């Protein structure tokens, strides 16, 4: 019997998760990956041919892996608290031939897991006796994910970090050189969700498939009434199974529409003027017994549901009640709340920098596990309005948040990481902000683009440790801004707080016109990045920005001199952090500053929290 070190991973991760149109698709995909990895690790631990199995990375006890490894998928999605990362390394003892046999059997084991997942996902369809499923939802023989593994003899004379470093290199080589599976396509339409696999239905010809769609698919009442699939959706087996698997979660998973409204709704529920109207709304929606949480504050959502004649009368009453809420907020601008929620929400993705190297250091793996626990506790019931976790695996995660809370949430994650792991280990983050009616998968891919940009960010001879925020508007326009963690983003959050309906500790609010005026003053200078190294040039810009800021700050109470003193204090503590603009930090600083101002203006304009002032006309977007 010999001693071995191993590394194992499930791929693809981001691509598989991003194949999502709804939040339930996203959750099902994330849970499936975590559930599969727990099963695989438990399979290795409990295998009679292996001895002394110890998972080093991630930091999970044998007991915890065994507990998660015994769960069915339905049990896992209903108690989902922590994702087991898609990559693990550790030790075991075994005979050479036995070790090879066990790892070679992992492909078959993963196929069996996919079959188990498929059967659990189809429970609801079998209960409803949908005949088309029996014919066209046979389990795929090959699962849509793969296992990459490698093991080699362990050198007992070397420390853990050295052994893990060597196996990491071998794993990377295997992953890069693995054969790519050939996909045997069919002459029919592609899935509207993943765009890769063929849709459910007859696969012999496009004509046969179209006839099947007209005759069977569109006439099924469950398409319109159960809301598990939209009328115009055409899903492949994998995406359809993920959609069904999401409904094994007994909790009312927040939809993108519902998550968008959370902070806005939290604020209006505190208003006495709306107590009775909100109570009426809750009573009206009870008979509908919707399987998902439905935000009744978007007229387009109500109109879409009115296609169901059985619910039209109740929906008319809900619509009238919703208008009462909007009118009350429109008349009472001092509430600082927009007549309806924002149409935008955010995806946050984050990942520790160079964790392959850092995680091999003593104690780091345990600290990463504590960090993940802290993030989960942050989104407890009390803070659930701030966002919803969809994937959490050690130093990486994916969270959906309302735009009103996205910057504070991002800062909380970054601060929690630094508090536990220190400043030597850094965290990169990508945020995508998108319209609630756009596909979720596209927003996830945009967030992945943003985090990739953060990891490539270069400033002052340092890479990574940055945040990129990328916005895709309803019309499809995209813009982004990147900066290192620190003074830039701290200043950004301070300004955003005052632009929204939040009073600072100085009792000040900032006009919504501030970012527009500052950006306008910079437009003529955008080609002057090369002059940024000139100290006098920077100071002149800073003086102009300070002048605009003093003019656009609205302070309550106090005489003229007292207000002027408070404005200076606000400038020094909330704007002029680290002597703003005095340091020659980047040749592209003016361009980056302009992008940040553009982002500030967008977040302030689209937020459900409003700082109503005379300088900017409130835009109420009618649907």
Give a structural overview.
- With 623 residues, the chain is α+β, with helices and mostly antiparallel strands.
- Helix content is 49%, strand content 14%.
- The chain has 25 helices and 14 strands.
- It has helices at residues 14-18, 23-46, 62-69, 73-78, 96-104, 106-121, 123-128, 131-136, 160-177, 206-217, 221-225, 237-246, 256-268, 275-285, 299-305, 312-331, 355-358, 364-378, 406-421, 440-456, 487-499, 514-523, 535-552, 560-575, 589-606; strands spanning 2-11, 51-57, 87-94, 146-153, 344-352, 388-393, 396-402, 427-435, 458-459, 462-463, 466-472, 478-484, 508-510, 553-555.
- Strands 6-7-5-8-11-12 form a six-stranded mixed beta sheet. Strands 2-3-1-4 form a four-stranded antiparallel beta sheet, sandwiched between helices.
- Helix 2 crosses helix 3.
- The longest helix has 24 residues, at 23-46.
- The chain is globular, with a radius of gyration of 27 Å.
Mean pLDDT: 83
**Rg from C-alpha positions?**
27 Å
Distance between the termini: 70 Å
Q: What is the β-strand count?
A: 14
Specify the oligomeric state.
single chain
Estimated helix fraction: 40-55%
Low-confidence stretches: 612-623
Put simply, the count of helices is 25
